Request: fold
Amino acid sequence: MRDIAPRYAIVTARPRDLPLLPAIELAAARMLAAWLEEEALAETTNIEQLADAQRDGRLWVALDDERPVGFAYAKRLEPAFAHLEEIDVHPDHGHRGIGRRLLTTVSTWAANRAYRGVTLTTFRDPPWNMPFYASAGFELVSPTEMRPALAALFERESARGLDSARRVVMEQRNSAQTK
Reply:
């Protein structure tokens, strides 16, 4: 990994950042081309959802000279857990620790708001994907251990065409929490 360039600042997203986020999401999605159908590669997060998250303080951007190069978007999926809905870093800025800093920001935000942890869904097969989250303390949640909200989300993703056999649910508990 290259040096975690201190020039990158992680900040709460500003309204002016919102129109720039879909391009980051699309560029990052291209890295999953071997695991996704073309139509899924063209999907972006709804701008209204991003605007709501921005207003609520649940959207962060990684800035390079005031320009977003990555973002993380969290939501409340269930009362006790925050859910990392999206995290993307433009590939031109990859391997510099930006994704880890965004992930840490979300985890810290969740802990400061007394969430028991953070959940996410992600792809099983890309060799950098699951290991990245595991290295940050996320653990696999088996289908039998999924709480109803997570199970419903997983089913919605499957209905959208994301192959559930290639997806996993992961959870990171706050250090003060036990399993």
The longest strand covers residues 67-78. The CA atoms of residues 10 and 62 lie 4 Å apart. The chain has a mean pLDDT of 90.
